[in-house]
Amino acid sequence: MVGTGAFLLMATACAGQDMATSQPAGGVSTAPTGSVSTLPSASEPVVPQPTPNPPGKPRLTVPEGSTPVPAAKIDATALPAGFPREVWTSNGGTILDIRAQEGGCGHALGEAAEQTAGHVVVNLSETKAQTGQMCTMDIRYPVISVALAAPLDQRTVVLKTTPPK
């Protein structure tokens, strides 16, 4: 039974490969439904588009092209000892990319709680694990993004933690 499934899978893959290589010249193929798709020719380079980091979506690395916020412009006195204190700006200064901390089944969150002419207060928190759910005891340091109403410019970033949500 397993051998038959593997054979059908290989035959289907080979048939799909034959269809892909037997396209008419010019890079236009006709799908079985009658729709026409244009494929890029070998002379047209395919340029991958950068993937923006939408606010609220954690990632492992700092977005390319981000600018570090100077340590003198970060007030992290309210953070627990050992909590990351790294902040970058992107998108013309309207996005703060902040190294956060999360663990187990939780996920880091950030929210611009206050924005004045002199500072921006960002509340960092973590989602609460579901009750009865087994979680690992690891600590991760993702980069989260927080949208600002206006570019950061010379304002100070004040980092605080809030209880899990």
Automatic annotation (TrEMBL):
Biased composition (Pro residues): 47-57
Top-level taxon of the source organism: Bacteria
Positions of the UniProt region annotated as Disordered: 20-68
Bias (Polar residues) ranges: 20-41
Protein name as it appears in the record: Uncharacterized protein
